[in-house]
Amino acid sequence: LQTEALNQVEAAEDVKALQDVRVAYLGKKGPITEVLRGMGKLSKEERPVIGQLANDIREDIANAIQEKQEKLEEVALEKQLEEETIDVTLPGRPVKVGGPHLLTSIVEEIEDLFIGMGFEIKEGPEVETDYYNFEALNLPKGHPARDMQDSFYITEELLLRTHTSPVQARTMGKKDGKEPVKMICPGKVYRRDTDDATHSHQFTQVEGLLVDKHVRMSDLKGMLDKFAKQMFGDEREIRLRPSFFPFTEPSVEMDISCKVCNGEGCSICKGTGWIEILGAGMVHPNVLEMAGYDPEEYSGFAFGMGPERIAMLKYGVDDIRHFYTNDIRFLKQYHKA
Ligand code: PHE
């Protein structure tokens, strides 16, 4: 009986089979229980011998079952571990990492430079009122200079802003005519232009405005010079040419020198060696007055530049449409590692 039981224990292939063996040999209806139960019928001399024997056998079988069970569990655990092993030496799948758009990078660079000079960053709505886009900037209805900026009108009084200059009027308007203003405003602007290499019906501008007591044209010039050198390099010169904007008086356009140097020496880029990069001027007294400032007490300067143009100059991009067609091969060239 013992040998037979031990053989079956050994043969059991899983915990369930082992359990069956336990019930068959050690259970209430098993042969050993039966022997122990029949002890009463045995003689006095036989009892301890048979009892001892039965108990020994039971213990042997129980031990064998216990041992086998541990072994089975160990095997099961090992199998599970093997199945769940991760090979950490396998090469990983590369994760595709994006990066900021070239325009975003340029705008952030411009922002950083002006934050460094103490300017605040402001925002304004892209759907603007006729009042802020034109009238508050000294461009009353019917003013011929409105034609300089062909507009997308939504209603008679609402349009997509044609420049970021309305944020000048909005920012000054909030200050109650008393506090100084020193802000820049980056944002999208819209004009009814036919798209080509240098025109786009939507592009970006960064507006700048400084209003305080005793602000002079020389302050504007000094600040723009600093900006140009930081943005394009110390070797750059700036040049201001007289121009016209209804909201500034006097008005200027700023050129930067475009000397290009390489290992073989320096050459002037194209044409005159100067490239226009922004419009600026002293804030027109009418604009100050409409925003609640006393032009006798306060003066200011304003400027507006196009980040696309700046990016095109800085990186030699030859077509403004590259910024919007979003060809990943173009954009990727400007992702910093
Ligand atoms: N708003 C002008 C434009 O879009 C640029 C400008 C801004 C000029 C501020 C002077 C002062 O062309």
TrEMBL record:
Subcellular location: Cytoplasm
Domain of life the protein comes from: Bacteria
Coiled coil region boundaries: 54-85
Binding site for Mg(2+): E249
Cofactor(s) listed: Mg(2+)
Gene3D superfamilies: Bira Bifunctional Protein, Domain 2 (3.30.930.10)
Keyword Phosphoprotein: no
Keywords: Aminoacyl-tRNA synthetase, ATP-binding, Coiled coil, Cytoplasm, Ligase, Magnesium, Metal-binding, Nucleotide-binding, Protein biosynthesis
Domain named Aminoacyl-transfer RNA synthetases class-II family profile: residues: 102-313
Catalytic reaction equation(s): tRNA(Phe) + L-phenylalanine + ATP = L-phenylalanyl-tRNA(Phe) + AMP + diphosphate + H(+)
Chief location of this protein within or outside the cell: cytoplasm
Molecular function as annotated in GO: phenylalanine-tRNA ligase activity
InterPro entries documented for this protein: aa-tRNA-synth_II, aa-tRNA-synth_II/BPL/LPL, Phe-tRNA-synth_IIc_asu, Phe-tRNA_ligase_II_N, Phe_tRNA_ligase_alpha1_bac, Phenylalanyl-tRNA_Synthase, tRNA-bd_arm
E.C. designation(s): 6.1.1.20
Cofactor binding comment, as recorded: Binds 2 magnesium ions per tetramer.
Name of the top EC class for this enzyme: ligase
HAMAP family the record matches: Phe_tRNA_synth_alpha1 (MF_00281)
Complexes and interactors: Tetramer of two alpha and two beta subunits.
Family: Belongs to the class-II aminoacyl-tRNA synthetase family. Phe-tRNA synthetase alpha subunit type 1 subfamily.
Name of the protein in question: Phenylalanine--tRNA ligase alpha subunit
Gene giving rise to this polypeptide: pheS
